[in-house]
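Re: weekly structure request thread

Next one in the queue (494 aa):
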Amino acid sequence: MKNISFFNTTRHKCVILGLLTYLISHNPIWSQCPTPVNNNFRNNGTGGSCLSGITIPAGKQHTGRFTFQNGTGPANNQYLDKVLLNGQLYQEGQTLYNNLGTIWFGGYNASSKDLCFYGISNNNNAVPAGRWTLFFRDVITGALTNCIYTIDNTGNSSSFSAGAISGGETICTGSAASTITSSSNATSCASPTYQWRQSTTSSTNGYTDIVGATGITYSPGTLTQTTYFLRVATCAASFVSSSTDPIAVSVISLSGTQNVAQNGNTSFSSTITGGVWASDNTSIATVNSSTGSITAGNTVGTCSITYTINGVTCSRSLFVSNTLPVTWSSFTGKAVNKQVILNWSTASETNSRDFLVMHSTNGVQWKEIGTAQAAGNSQNIRNYQFTHITPVEGNNAYQLFQRDLDGRTERSRIVNVVLGKGQSGLFVYPNPVENNRIYIQLTSASTILIYNSIGAEVYRQPLPIGTHTIILPKLAAGLYRVRAGMETRPLLIQ
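Done, posted below.
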């Protein structure tokens, strides 16, 4: 932004927040910064009736007006969009952001081109001294004009200027920012003083004084988030302060899951978008250059995922391991008041998304009955619980399918809970057979017998109560029967 005197005009266009929606009749588009009559903002309640049809805010009184010289005021289709004092948002629309609480800027009188403002009383509620930036919005085109005035403690225009600063840059989080230098020092004052201010909120709000930062230049040191800086200059002789325009030190902070299993997926993100991602070892992992989506390879190891923007490169480590998505610690079920309460725990989780709770009455057909949110990544014991409110009388078999974020799954053992009249249970899974391996759960000790389609026995093994893993002999594709006690289940080998 560029300072202008009350008698100069300029036009600035930019994007700005909000739109105050009161419409006035259309005049030709205005492109000037208004010049006040008598160069004075103060007026101290002498403005009289200012805005016809505009209600004065509750608890406020009309305290004055800013009367523009003929031909320099806004057209009827212009309104005051927002106001900054010394670089900080003072008011936007009808919302005050200052801690003074005395001034509420209104709008324009359609005929006299007065800008009215209101305060808590008519007693000397003048606009405070400082560098004021008034943003005027055109309701037809949306064009924005910003006008900068420096006002002294008498309410008159001042030639005092805060000067300018330079030093905006982009850095990686935890890095030290360069010294912010003075492009030009304060002018029109014999002995100005300086105070540096900073904000992590925005360029126009949230500023606080930096203790001890009173020099012409300032060294921010190490930063972990994007921070805005400005320098306020004060002239004691005229009791006026003015601020520089802010500069930003943009901080790149990378985030995302750093542990992933072989052939798994994860993603990284940055606090500043628009850069380029890369991997320093594509045999371990590759990364989408624009999205940060990462695909791990089959190689266990560590690589560095880099992110480059504005000529600055930051990195974050990625660890590819052969660790399963979840390490089961326990899985139990018990009948309580005709319901089944399932409890399970995990010793560790990597990239874990959720748990699918599966239910079966015969060990062959399974149905999903619920889900539970997983921890994501954890190296500590995590406990979970699920209640099945509609189990059947007799055998109820339960199994958990853990799903991770890259689509991999891990199955738990089967838990069987008997409600009401007990019966011998035989549960066989998966069906069809996968990788020549099946799991069998028995609710009583039995001899497992497997027969082919013509009734010939192809497998026999006595087993106790519980869940067992069976590696089948090499069998031809076809339909088989698994028998335990008096129960028989079909088994398909493809």
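Confidence is low (pLDDT under 50) at residues 1-30. The domain at 424-494 is CATH 2.60.40.3080 (Immunoglobulin-like).
Next request, please.
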